[in-house]
Amino acid sequence: MTLRSRVDFQAKRLDMVILVMAKRKRKKKVAKARRLKPVVGWREWVGLPELGVERLKGKFDTGARTSVIHAFNIKAYKTKDGQHRIRFQLHPRQHHRLPSVACDAEVKEIRQVTNSGGLREPRFVIETTLQIGGNHWPIELTLSNRDEMGFRMLVGRTAIRRRFVVDPGRSYLVDLL
What we know:
The structure is a single chain. This protein is α/β, with parallel strands linked by helices. It folds into two domains: about 35 residues; about 130 residues, Cathepsin D, subunit A, domain 1 (Beta Barrel), CATH 2.40.70.10. Helices cover about 20% and strands about 45% of the residues.
């Protein structure tokens, strides 16, 4: 192999390496763009349309695995066909006793959940639709008396996994549609 052919070979090889690196860079940019998720604040307005709640202040708590809503007058019952259901009421407005919304849902299960005090307690679990902005999807929601807590609803990390990034320094970034 002559010197000139060696130089040409090395130049072609270098061109191929540059081309491969450029393709990899493009793939990384595309993959990164796919990973970009909408940002929500640590508190946002959310809706629970299946429960008749148009607007409710929710705290996005990535430390909480499960979502929870303040519920009272909880009464479990069984339908004629053997389905386990639950009736309960909730106050959608923080620090207000009115309005009160009467709800009815199918019981998915009763689960042991660790509360904010570190104690394990049994809670009813229902499945309902969560609305944030124009987005709707099903979530699991536990029922608990949160009367003494600051927020009527906590949105846990399993409800927002792979959907949003939470900015803990900002609030109300998403318009409730």
